[in-house]
Amino acid sequence: MKRITPTPPELAERLLSWFCKEELLEEILGDLYEYHEELMEQPNWKRKIIYWFHVFHFLRPSLLKNISGTQELNYYGMLKLYIRTSLWNLFKHRLVSAVSLFTLVVGAISFHLVYAWIDNELSMDNLHSKRDRIHLAISKFNEMSDFIPVAPGVFFGLDYAQLPEVEKVMVIHTYDEDQIKLKKGTVSFPGRAWVVDSVLFDFFDFRLTSGDKEALHDPGSIIVTQEFANRLFPNEDPLGKMVEVSCDQVGLYQIAAIMEDLPANSSINVDFLVPRHSKDFWRRLPTELLLVDENFDRDAFNAKFAPMGRAHGRHGKSVMSTIPFNTLYFERPLEVPLFSKQGDLNNLRAMQLIAIIILIVTALSFTNLQTTLQLTMANRIGIKKAMGASKLNLGFELIVNGLLYFSSSLFIAFLAYELMFPYYLHIMRLDLDQNSVLDLQVLSLVIIFIIAVSFSVSFVRIMKVSVTESLVVNVNFFKIPITQRILTTLQYTLAIILIFSTSIIFLQLKYMVNKDTGLIQSNIIETNIFEIFPSLRQDSVKRMEMLNIHARVVNQLKGNPDIIAVSQGTVPINNAYTQSIKRADADNDFELMNVMSVDTNYDDVFGLDVIDGIFFSDSLESDNNTVVINESAMRHLNIERIDDTELLMHMPGGDIRYSIIGVVKDFHFQHLSHKVNPLILRNFYYADKSFIVRYRPDARNRVLDFMDKLHRDINPNSAFTFNDFEEKVNSQYANEKRMSSVVNGFALVAILLASSGLFTFAFHETKRRTKEIGIRKVTGANHFQVFFVMCKSFLFTVLIACVLAYPIAWYLMQMWLADFANRIDISGWIFVGVGILTLLFAITTISWQTLKVARMNPVESLRYE
Amino acid sequence: MGKEYLGELEELVLLLIVMLKEEAYGLAIRKALKEQANRNVTIGAVHGTVNRLESKGFVESTLGGATKERGGRRKRIFTITAAGKKLLQNSQDVKVNIWRQIPELSLDKQ
After folding, report:
1. Full domain range(s) for residue A647
2. How far apart are CA A209 and CA A52, in angstroms?
3. Interval A261-289 mean pLDDT
4. Mutation for A interface: B23, B41, B43, most A CBs within 10 A
5. In a domain, A62, yes or no
6. Residue A75 sits in the same domain as residue A187
7. Are residues A418 and A286 in the same domain?
8. Residue of B42, B51, B76 with shortest CB distance to A54
9. What is the ipTM of this complex?
10. Could you tell me which chain A residue has the CA closest to the CA of B50?
11. Most exposed residue of A75, A144, A283, A394, measured as fewest CB within 10 angstroms of its CB?
12. Structural domains in chain A (count)
């Protein structure tokens, strides 16, 4: 029987020849070879394990190559010596070393905190391999109106077979958390859902943890995410379980597959997927995604695509178009319900700038610290040179020193980063995934960069040290070079700009939160009591029944003495939509204006002031053709008397005339960065909209109890939830708040790093001028005078930084504030305040060193002369 | 010259080197350890021990001829030195001496 004998793994032999003493290598490899033969009887995997086990046991001190180098001066020996001297240096100047290490750690962590966010934004939706071939189909009903993401295929009956570029079409209805839920028995779980065609997995690379992608073909199946499945069935296997989908449609489905949770860098965020063909009709507007071929030419396609809807008789003026999926995250020209996250290019740029500033400031600080330390050690370098140290020797020593800094700071930074990352996400309200490998890479790259910059500067400086000068002249007479002073001044300038910005952002935020919006904000809650009513066509009996219950609920609410006013609709925060409107009597063109749908009690709940005419009321007959406008709209449209003027609203079916019955005082219905824009109020009433209730200030708890009971009466199986209007108003400023905390954090980092530079100056200067201070004290100067003399030279740096920073900071903040229609003025006090704060910081930093010198006994410093 | 004492494994290995004569190389010593003393050690441990013994001057080594089953590599054959013999003798004398003073234990054993 012939057998091919496998030879031992080559890698193992190479590893051993790398590490083991050369003279022993032959017998070691020989023995192992023989042993390998003996193991032939074992199965392959077992043989490998045993073999490697033995290989690792050869890595023992007596067999390893000698690296001690105590007898002979080889490179290992040199390395050992350098490590020893470096450690000794670090320890001797432990204050500077500690500050250097601190600078590295803080700088690297701050940089990566920003970088993690930037990386997440830039890698958005990268998980989908076909993302460049996916396009969103949009349409508009005529040239005048805006594009909307309504599925052209569904609405205009397009035949995509005429477009060979399009490989696949997918229709999606998006349901938000308040529109759909899964029911397990009687318990409801609201979630975000896509009601979607079965081709989904041809478009997007969502990964399944169990079940298979064919699940969507079966109309009785549903796919849920891992996280949502865990919520539904905490301790069971969710696969195969039955759940009830409840929205405008109701049906039983079986969980056929589990999807991996979507990562933070996915703009799509769904909890479950429902096959679209399981019902004939879904009430949410459908959107359409197209999968196109590799050679897709968007402009040519759009030209061909645009008029295709006109074949449909009723929409002779309609226009179709497409938007690439991969641009939708950062540039979204229209609201798309499909994707729950949206990026902000300005924010991204700002963060990139901050990351670069942090990197520069850290590199400056660290370089500053290290070169100042070199000054202090100049005579040591002089001696080395005199003894014949070459460039190579000195450079090698620097590298060893750098490696020590690198390893220790990387260790601390990595640990600290991994620990604080969850808190960072929480404070900044960010959604990012933690990736330790990336963290380690970025942190080490940043630290390497900073150390490399610093040590190349140091190397040049060391080369310049003249032997005689450093040995003959007392080392402490080396003055701090002008370049380093300039560097520190620059650092302070950056720090002051950041402190200034953070103060302005803070004040502006406070101003906005407290600003009178022209609306009553407090003691108003919004709650959803009724689910969507079925339409007459769907179920007329149930609809009548629901309307009866609704009438009872309204009566109960109105009858409660604690409740001042009740309305149904949406709270006035960014819920206006635009429509083409013009004065009926004027010749001008239609223009887009903000329109809001309200019911007759809206003015009572929010305290709208009617300054002319009347508000909508139930007794008024021709409700549908009347509007109420705000003061801005009156001014904008040049209306003098509302009785004389009518408005024309552009509608797909034909323009409609509206008479103006009243004017309300301006109130803010958008983010306060906007002026109060012209607004048209129309009277619409949906019985299934949310209730908005304003109650007496002292009756909050009673009203909440009452509402809770009412809610339970109608929906025995779901809990009562509500939103405070005031909270919702304040949450509009979440973006500004986040910006404020980001700038705040980095202002702190910048001032800390700048202080570390100043700190080293103080460190060096006090050493250099010890004798001078001694003489001053002997000739009668007191503590305070000495302290003042010492501080004077440093504080000058800070003052120059202030002069440099103020105009830049002022300009930047004016630009930022320009985006706000309602803004604060930048007062002189802010300049004074920031200046004083910075000075205080600087003085505290210097005092550490100077106070020590000021209090020192002059005899100490003069004795050795 | 190194210490006068030997560890337990060192002494065993030294004895086995004497026993194995021309065949006293790493892997063979490991095999003998297993057979004679039922001790399972790694090849690396054997190599560490013999190297230690050599640096203490109790064994010396010569390279044997190349063999095919070792991939053409030579064996290092260990032989005991005079100092090694003396040490083994010494160690045995000490033990025998002690054993003699505790007859009851040695009787039990028989």
Report:
1. 524-715
2. 35
3. 87
4. B43
5. no
6. no
7. no
8. B42
9. 0.84
10. A62
11. A75
12. 5
Q: Which of A347, A316, A344, A309 is nearest to A329 (CA)?
A: A344
Q: How far from each other are the two terminal CA atoms of chain B, in whole angstroms?
A: 40
pLDDT of A296 above 80: yes
> Quick one: pLDDT at residue A70?
46
Query: Which pLDDT tens digit goes with each residue over A572-598?
Result: 877 777 778 888 877 777 787 888 888
Chain B contact set for A60 (CB, 8 A): 44-45, 48
Establish if A65 belongs to a structural domain: no
- List for chain A the helix, strand, coil content (%; round to 5): 55, 15, 30
Question: For A632-685, how does the pLDDT look when each residue is reduced to its tens digit (9 = 90+)?
Answer: 888 888 888 888 788 888 776 678 888 888 899 988 888 777 788 889 988 887
Q: Which of A28, A34, A53 sits opposite B47 (nearest CB)?
A: A28
Residue A1 in domain: no
pLDDT at A768 over 80: no
Residues of chain B positioned with their CB less than 8 A from the CB of A34: 27, 69-70
Q: A629 pairs with which residues across the strands?
A: A663, A680
Q: Which tokens hold the place of B63?
A: 């390279």
CA of B68: which chain A residue's CA is closest? A34
Q: Measured between CB atoms, which of A27, A56, A58 is closest to B25? A: A27
Distances (CA, A) of A231 to A227, A684, A733, A799: 6, 38, 31, 59
Mean pLDDT (chain A) is 82
Range of the domain at B81: 8-109
Give B40: exposed, middle or buried? Use CB within 10 Å, 0-12, 13-18, 19+: exposed
| Same domain as A382, residue A364 | yes
* Residues from chain B contacting residue A59 (CB–CB below 8 Å): 44
Nearest Cα residue to B9 out of B35, B24, B30: B30
Res A153 pLDDT > 50: yes
Query: Are B47 and A35 within 8 A, CB to CB?
Result: no
Residues A488-530 have pLDDT tens digits of 888 888 888 888 888 888 888 888 877 778 888 888 988 888 7
| Interfacial residues of A (vs B; Cβ cutoff 8 Å) | 7, 24, 26-35, 37, 53-54, 56-60, 62-63
- Model pLDDT, residue A2: 42
- Give the nearest partner residue to B48 out of A32, A54, A63, using CB atoms: A63
Q: Do A28 and B25 touch (CB under 8 A)?
A: no
Q: Do A833 and A864 have their domain in common?
A: yes
Are A655 and A649 in contact, with CB atoms under 8 Å apart? yes
Residues of chain A with Cβ-Cβ distance to B69 below 8 Å are 33-34, 37
Kindly report the CATH number assigned to the domain that includes residue B37.
1.10.10.10
